[in-house]
Amino acid sequence: MPFPSRRSVLASALGVTAATVPLLGGTAAATPATRASSSGARAETYRPRLHFSPAKNWTNDPNGLIFHEGRWHLFFQYNPEGDVWGNMSWGHAVSSDLLHWEERPVAIAHDEQEMIFSGSVVFDERNTSGLGTAGRPPLVAIYTSTLKDDSGLQRQSLAYSTDAGETWTKYAGNPVLDIGARDFRDPSVFWHADSGRWVMALALPTEYKIRFYASDDLKSWHHLSDFGPLGATGGIWECPNLFPLGDRWVLLVSLNPGGPAGGSATQYFTGSFDGTTFTPDPDQGTRWVDHGADCYAGITYNDAPDGRRVFLPWMNNWLYADRIPTAPWRGAMGFPRELALHEGRLAQAPVAELESLRTRTLLSLTGATAPEGTRRLLADTGQFYELEAVLAPDSPTTSDFGLDVRTGGGSYTRIGYDTAAGELYIDRRSSGDVGFAAEFPGVHRAPLALPDGGLDLRILVDASSVEVYAAGGAVCLTDQIFPDPSACALRAYADGGPLRIETLTARALRSALRA
């Protein structure tokens, strides 16, 4: 039978020791955490170490995601002149591994006539547009041109690059699609091989519709069909993205407000696409990409190698995006995720490149029982790390259980499971600085039946965010948090009865920030 034991682990690189949770049985191992350096130009409080954030100023939606000539390109909505929304232009960053990003000069800048809203980039390999040459086909950006005059019209325009995305020229024949509408935006374009033409998905935000167009040359477009309304319609529709995944097609549609955690969120539909019409699978209901508060406007990469479908969202929410307490930047991207379909449902996982950042195991537990209450597992995890665990109630009376991350000084972020409700949740009400916006503190929940083998969790903790992948990535929650940098303890908790820790591994990670 299990027996009580108390183990000590090194709590930090400074050699401070702290007791682990009193564990009944099981095995444990731990090694010291390593804190992020407090020196350097990019060591600002809350600066993500694992996620992309611009060196300064405002950012929102990712745009123009494409893998080209060995580099992952990230274009993004950007204000080159301030840290609040405005002067929308396309920022630009590149990476060879989806981890280490090099910020480049602004790619497509606003001017006196227009702001550059969201869109996509394609590699026009056949030079169908005539904007490149046979020897040097262009990258073509298709974006929403929002007029700065009183009309506020939104039209679709092109820019092109013949130097692998380093510099961009606006097409002299812009706009290429104009229906005289104020809400007509966010073109998502791809090559549809079966029909041998380009296909564009566009949002009609206030009509809760996605409209499809086709073109032979990226310059002349004709209407194919409309999709919607369907699913969630509690807010405007934005940022569509249509792509094949396995034997189905997936359509992402972002919604603001009306998300499950309030404010912004992204829903998805599965179905078929014949080159003209997207037909949804029957009886879908509303399906959310992420049940947290901070996963919005995400799209996937064009031309990703090895058939991968890589998804990248904006990690923020329009309820409070302009008030989060970061400086000199405001806004970050979520961690890149690889998508798959499992039994018709979207499954997500951090891209495998994350494993290259692993340095050491901070804590490893197997077959341990934690008593009712809250107990510390590690005194110092550092500000960013990866955690994998399988947890289960160890008594029929255990009503709530889970883990507290970024704990210290009276603050913590709880990742819990409510057995009566059958819900996984993140509780950030006591996560640190929550007073900058009344809409920020809260508990964000996702329905999830507890598997017989226990609740499997993969958690990515960064300086100012928590991303939770549960049930093999079938359920995800992403939340920003703003804890004190010293809040780095890890705890287990259980209400109503004990908690069974089948396995738990916490791993230290290297920072992905460039020096």
UniProtKB/TrEMBL annotation:
Keyword GTP-binding appears in the UniProt entry: no
Signal peptide span: 1-18
Residues in coiled coil: none
Keywords recorded for this protein, A-Z: Glycosidase, Hydrolase, Signal
Highest taxon in the source lineage: Bacteria
Glycosyl hydrolase family 32 C-terminal domain span: 353-506
Matches recorded under CDD domains: GH32_Inu-like (cd18622)
SMART domains from the UniProt entry: Glyco_32
InterPro entries membership: ConA-like_dom_sf, Glyco_hydro_32, Glyco_hydro_32_C, Glyco_hydro_32_N, Glyco_hydro_beta-prop_sf, TAT_signal
GO molecular function: hydrolase activity
Domain Glycosyl hydrolase family 32 N-terminal residues, every copy: 51-350
SUPFAM superfamilies per the UniProt record, alphabetical: Arabinanase/levansucrase/invertase (SSF75005), Concanavalin A-like lectins/glucanases (SSF49899)
Similarity remark: Belongs to the glycosyl hydrolase 32 family.
Official protein name in the record: Glycoside hydrolase family 32 protein
Record organism: Streptomyces cavernicola
